[in-house]
């Protein structure tokens, strides 16, 4: 298995596309459709990586990111922000809040996969040192 990924977005069609693309590449994928559900799923499955939208109901992605990075149980889980918010200030804010990779919508699945591979391979390398 390539790893456990939590995909969080309120666009159910997009979640399905990402989930399918990741599963055919050997990832185990869990999904959530709002910020509250994202936090519950993070605790339940302890994913190796989280793909997180910013604009969502109940808790937005930046609030979720802050909580994850502020919790010692989860703060080492890498987070990819995948969002329509693409201006310079939004990107900088995402990285300030602790994002490991930032990808703007619309996006190519290949670019998301590059980010996932880059993050997960660097984690494996770090855990060996």
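Q: What amino acid sequence fits the structure above?
A:
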């Amino acid at each position: 298995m390539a790893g456990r990924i939590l995909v969080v977005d309120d666009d159910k069609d997009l979640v399905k596309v990402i989930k399918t693309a990741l599963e055919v590449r050997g990832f185990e994928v869990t999904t959530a459709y709002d910020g509250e559900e994202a936090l519950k799923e993070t605790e339940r499955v302890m994913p190796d990586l989280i793909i997180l939208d910013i604009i969502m109901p109940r808790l937005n992605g930046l609030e979720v990111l802050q909580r994850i990075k502020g919790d010692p149980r989860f703060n080492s889980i890498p987070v990819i922000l995948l969002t329509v918010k693409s201006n310079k200030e939004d990107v900088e804010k995402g990285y300030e809040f602790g994002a490991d990779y930032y990808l703007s919508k619309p996006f190519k699945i290949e670019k998301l996969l590059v980010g996932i591979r880059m993050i997960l391979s660097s984690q494996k390398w770090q855990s060996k040192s």
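Q: And what stands out in the fold?
A: The longest helix spans residues 109-128.
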